[in-house]
Structure formats: C-alpha cells, structure tokens
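#struct-help
A.M.: can someone run this one for me? Single chain, 123 residues.
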Amino acid sequence: MFSENAEEAAAAMRKWLRGCFAKPLPLDEELLLLGLNLLCPPRVRLALLSRTLENDDVLSQIRLPVLVTHGDADEVVDLETSQHIASHVQGAKLSVYDGIGHASFWEDADRFNAELTEFASAL
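D.P.: on it. Structure tokens below:
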C-alpha cells in the first residue's frame, strides 16, 4: 500500500480494503472506494498506518458529546480501541455493530445514519 508503483499499491490497497468490510462489496462500490483511497499519497498512507497514539490525557478532557461506533468484525482497528476511547471520554456513547467491519457507515448505513441523527438531534 505504500509503494510508489501504482499497480503494486492498487493490488495491496484492494486487499486491505476488502479487510475493511465483513461482507464482500459489490464490484462498483469496491472500485469506487479503491479509487478514493488511492487518492491519498503513499507517504501519507504510511504515516497514518504506522503511527502510535497515546491520547488518554486529551480524551479525559473532552467535555462534548461523543458517539463512538465500531463494527465487531473490524479487522483494521480492534474493538478494544473504541471501548478504550469511550471509557476515557466522560459520557461517551459506544455503539457496537454486530457482524460489521471497519466501515459501519457504509455496511449498515441505515442504522448508522439513524443513530447519528438521533445523537445530533439530542444536542
């Protein structure tokens, strides 16, 4: 995914992208998301995916409403990460999606949009 060679990067990104979803995407959606993800330069992808963050001090200072959504079939980010965030932000709400991967907003758009609408409307 970090290669400057377009064919290598596309093949690796496609494999990674497939790991973001619990169920296979229709080909047109997969290709759309592949193209969008490849817009990000390889050096930026490398920086994003190789960083480590220690933000507990920042999380504990957040005083705004926070909705944390996470698919329990996510192969990109562990569920424990979202649980950690929700436990460190006072009053945060954690919503876990059964059988959904990294892109809950895509795989279960109806539920995601309903929860987000309800969350935002309550502000």
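A.M.: thanks! The longest strand covers residues 67-71.
D.P.: also worth noting: The helical segments are 6-18, 27-38, 42-50, 56-59, 79-88, 104-107, 109-121.
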